[in-house]
């Protein structure tokens, strides 16, 4: 855990959950697994506040707990899960592009609440969709259920672990903390619910008061509603499945850049056929025969069987090995290599951004030649000796390149030692990843600073917008609306526009850096898992 990651986790927790949760999360990240008593003592917070903060973090899978041998429960922060908050907008946008507005709201609600039951989630999303519809139109529960089933079938949502049944026996004392279990066969099984109804719009203040009085009266009379049929079955977003989708999109894009559009469409079809059957940690997809691939190609894509076999052979013979040939039976069995990043070009050529095009030339040269002496670098790169030496030392100081000593004699005398420059690609990727974490933290701090400096103006703008919305709902005239709009002066409106433009740029920059973080994390993971 680097200081950049710790700082970024702290900023993310504070922005999304507040100061108390941020204090607990940061303390656990710094100190490792800790029992409840030490957390309360070291943070100086009240016991009730610590318990509530831990409940929030456990609800969002950002803290895990484990019962020790002596019966003590220790809580441990999941730093990588906290950093995934940065990728929430990308998860939501991906779901919107695949499953429309309904899928977008389903994933958004799950991310906001950590986990929810299917019945509560369907009702909440149906109500939100009904709010956006025209008067007289409502969203049926069945449409939301169908989208939810599609998300579960493609493994974008999954069940949460549950407490096993049969533990509440009077003779055996309950454990200090329950052990959650989950049957893998039931992980994506959607319960059969008879959800009949439509989304509801928000009621007016008077109707809400009447509804509250009725609810209190029912509670006082002893009336109670029956629990939903899926009570105790909770769902959460499968983040690994989203990462698998991002990785598949990167592979398709790489094939399109390397080959052509037809090759990328063939690889896309292979990935789509095995997206559910292939584990997120697998090195290769499940073997597919050429006949199966041919039958699964898009209907409008006119590719003959012979042409498909030629493309598959071309992909299998490529040095990057996007596609591998497993067997020759059935016209050939082919797989898509998930770890092609470990054999392909490493992360983007950052040296050109930091040190100029000549450093980038030396960097690419070392990647291609593996090991070179300084004189060889000068000759191959066609750069003067003084400049080449300066550039090599600058990249060496940033850990972009490494220096390896190969002595001729055991005494390691400099005159009898070869000094070879090389690129330690995993180390360079980790260094770039560290810089990306620092960049995101700086962008977040700048965005928060901009909002803090213009807090008064933002609050005034929100008040004016609320007044305008209420007047429009009551059918106010244009003159009255214009008078309210003029409460914000011209310079203030210009300042608001500048602020919104700057905040949007910072938000977009955060997402762009996160895309680079995903590429670097995937590359590092592939080098660790490569055969």
Automatic annotation (TrEMBL):
GO CC list: RNA polymerase III complex
Coiled-coil regions listed in the entry: none
Keywords on record: DNA-directed RNA polymerase, Nucleus, Transcription
Example of a GO MF term: single-stranded DNA binding
Region of interest called Disordered, as start-end residue ranges on this chain: 199-233
Primary localization: nucleus
DNA-directed RNA polymerase III subunit RPC3 winged-helix domain residues: 355-423
Entry annotated with the keyword Metal-binding: no
Residue span, RNA polymerase III Rpc82 C -terminal domain: 146-336
Residue ranges annotated for the RNA polymerase III subunit RPC82-related helix-turn-helix domain, each copy included: 7-65
Gene Ontology process terms (BP): DNA-templated transcription
Superkingdom of the organism of origin: Eukaryota
Compartment(s) of residence: Nucleus
Gene3D superfamilies to which the protein is assigned, alphabetical: 6.10.140.1450, Winged helix-like DNA-binding domain superfamily/Winged helix DNA-binding domain
InterPro entries recorded: POLR3C_WHD (IPR055207), RNA_pol_III_RPC82-rel_HTH (IPR013197), RNA_pol_III_Rpc82_C (IPR008806), RPC3 (IPR039748), WH-like_DNA-bd_sf (IPR036388)
Subunit structure: Component of the RNA polymerase III (Pol III) complex consisting of 17 subunits.
Function: DNA-dependent RNA polymerase catalyzes the transcription of DNA into RNA using the four ribonucleoside triphosphates as substrates. Specific core component of RNA polymerase III which synthesizes small RNAs, such as 5S rRNA and tRNAs.
PANTHER family assigned: DNA-DIRECTED RNA POLYMERASE III SUBUNIT RPC3, RNA POLYMERASE III DNA DIRECTED -RELATED
Protein family: Belongs to the eukaryotic RPC3/POLR3C RNA polymerase subunit family.
Full protein name: DNA-directed RNA polymerase III subunit RPC3
Organism of this sequence: Probosciger aterrimus
Encoding gene per record: Polr3c
């Amino acid at each position: 855990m680097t200081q950049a990651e710790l700082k970024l986790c702290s900023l993310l927790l504070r922005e999304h959950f507040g100061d108390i949760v941020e204090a607990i999360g940061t303390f656990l990240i710094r100190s490792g697994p800790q029992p409840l008593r030490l957390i309360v003592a070291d943070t100086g917070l009240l016991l009730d506040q610590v318990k509530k903060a831990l409940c929030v973090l456990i609800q969002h899978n950002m803290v895990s707990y484990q019962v020790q041998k002596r019966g003590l429960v220790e809580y441990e922060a999941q730093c990588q899960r906290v950093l995934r908050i940065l990728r929430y907008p990308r998860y939501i946008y991906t779901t919107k592009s695949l499953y429309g507005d309904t899928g977008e709201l389903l994933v958004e609600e799950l991310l906001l609440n950590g986990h929810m039951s299917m019945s509560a989630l369907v009702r909440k999303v149906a109500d939100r969709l009904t709010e956006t519809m025209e008067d007289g139109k409502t969203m049926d529960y069945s449409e939301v259920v169908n989208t939810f089933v599609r998300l579960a079938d493609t493994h974008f949502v999954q069940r949460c672990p549950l407490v096993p049944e049969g533990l509440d026996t009077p003779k055996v004392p309950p454990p200090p903390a329950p052990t959650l279990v989950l049957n893998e066969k039931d992980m994506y099984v959607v319960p059969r619910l008879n959800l009949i109804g439509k989304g509801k719009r928000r009621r007016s203040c008077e109707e809400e008061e009447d509804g509250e009085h009725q609810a209190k009266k029912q509670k006082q009379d002893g009336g109670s509603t029956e629990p939903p049929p899926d009570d105790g079955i909770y769902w959460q977003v499968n983040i690994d499945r989203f990462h698998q989708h991002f990785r598949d999109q990167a592979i398709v894009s790489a094939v399109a850049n390397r080959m052509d559009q037809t090759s990328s469409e063939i690889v896309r079809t292979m990935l789509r056929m095995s997206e559910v059957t292939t584990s997120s940690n697998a090195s290769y997809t499940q073997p597919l025969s050429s006949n199966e691939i041919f039958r699964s190609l898009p209907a409008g894509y006119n590719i003959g069987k012979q042409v498909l076999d030629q493309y598959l052979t071309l992909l299998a013979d490529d040095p990057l090995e996007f596609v591998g040939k497993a067997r020759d039976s059935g016209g050939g069995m082919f797989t898509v290599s998930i770890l092609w990043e470990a054999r392909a070009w490493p992360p983007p050529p950052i040296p050109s951004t930091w040190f100029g095009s000549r450093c980038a030339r030396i960097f690419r040269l070392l990647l291609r030649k593996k090991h070179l002496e300084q004189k060889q670098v000068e000759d191959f790169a066609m750069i003067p000796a003084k400049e080449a030496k300066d550039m090599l030392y600058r990249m060496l100081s940033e850990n972009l390149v490494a220096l390896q000593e190969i002595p001729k004699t055991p005494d390691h005398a400099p005159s009898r030692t070869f000094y070879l420059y090389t690129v330690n690609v995993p180390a360079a990727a980790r260094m770039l990843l560290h810089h990306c974490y620092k960049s995101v933290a700086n962008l977040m701090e700048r965005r928060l600073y901009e909002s803090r400096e213009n807090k008064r103006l933002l609050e005034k703008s929100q008040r004016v917008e609320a007044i305008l919305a209420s007047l429009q709902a009551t059918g106010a005239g244009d003159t009255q609306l214009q008078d309210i709009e003029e409460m914000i002066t011209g310079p203030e409106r210009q300042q608001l526009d500048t602020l919104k433009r700057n905040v949007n740029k910072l938000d977009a920059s955060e997402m762009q850096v996160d895309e680079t973080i995903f590429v670097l994390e995937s590359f590092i993971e592939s080098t660790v898992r490569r055969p």
